[in-house]
Fold:
Amino acid sequence: MSSTTGSPSPDPLDGPLAAADLDALVDEWGDWAQVADLLDVPRTKVGTLLREHRLAAAVPRPGAGQRVPLAFVQDGEVVKGLPGILTVLHDGGYDDRECIAWLFTDLGLPGRPIDALRENRGSEAKRRAQAMAL
Structure:
């Protein structure tokens, strides 16, 4: 038996992206060491990738520490098109937390922008990111 207590979590597109419940949006998170293993790079390289906006990280829930969505890595590499979208969004004033919320929100592409990127159909996601960053 399920019951609802409290209000539903906010839709990231109805309010500030920074208020989105990232832990509810993102299925799997990895710490820097896990991401480094997936990319077959030293852990320090993950920090470089984050600074260069080739990856994004956030604290998904209190006490969790900074994590990277594992969906950002595919076949041992950063998902194609992700660094470009992250750069566009950062240039538009969005931080990593807001970028992650946007990438994992269903925008009717069909689906979420991260899914479009992983399926090599990221052109529309990039176009929407550019429009949003204006």
Observations:
- Helices lie at 22-25, 32-39, 43-51, 82-91, 96-103, 113-118, 123-133.
